[in-house]
């Protein structure tokens, strides 16, 4: 599924955010780009798929204070803003194993087959494939 799929990107780095947005829009995804946790929480209910930077600031122009992207995703599920079935793709400059985020991911209440991890710089074809795989899992 690509056409009209609604993707929310939560990425505070303009270069990464605009690159991902432009690439997905070329494939007819409807993309919303936000730069902080507040924007993520505001637009999450509109998304079919969420792409979130693990180290995301809480508000615009605030320093990052840890794994706020993971904490925000967990909060979205706990407060029933999104279903635990909504696919979440976490992105980070660190690999999943070296990030030290395994405990946060377990606490996030996301279904294990509904999230994945991509390391920056992101290979765009792989991102598109992961989105397709995640959406295909929803129909099983």
Please characterize this protein's 3D structure.
With 140 residues, the protein is of the alpha/beta class. It has a single domain (6-138), classed as Rossmann fold. The chain is 40% helix and 18% strand. The chain contains 6 helices and 5 strands; from the N terminus they run E-H-E-H-E-H-E-H-H-E-H. It has helices spanning 14-26, 37-43, 68-78, 96-99, 102-107, 124-138, and strands spanning 6-10, 30-34, 49-53, 88-92, 115-119. The chain has a 5-stranded parallel sheet, sandwiched between helices. Helix 1 links the parallel strand 1 and strand 2 (30-34). The longest helix has 15 residues, at 124-138. It is globular. The two termini are 14 Å apart. The relative contact order is 0.18. The model has no long low-confidence stretch (mean pLDDT 84).
The level-1 CATH class: Alpha Beta
CATH fold field value: Rossmann fold
Low-confidence residue ranges: none
CATH architecture: 3-Layer(aba) Sandwich
Number of domains: 1
Percent range of helical residues: 40-55%
Helix-strand makeup class:
alpha/beta
Largest sheet: 5 strands, parallel
List SSEs in N-to-C order.
EHEHEHEHHEH
Report strand order across the widest sheet. Answer: 2-1-3-4-5
The count of β-strands is: 5
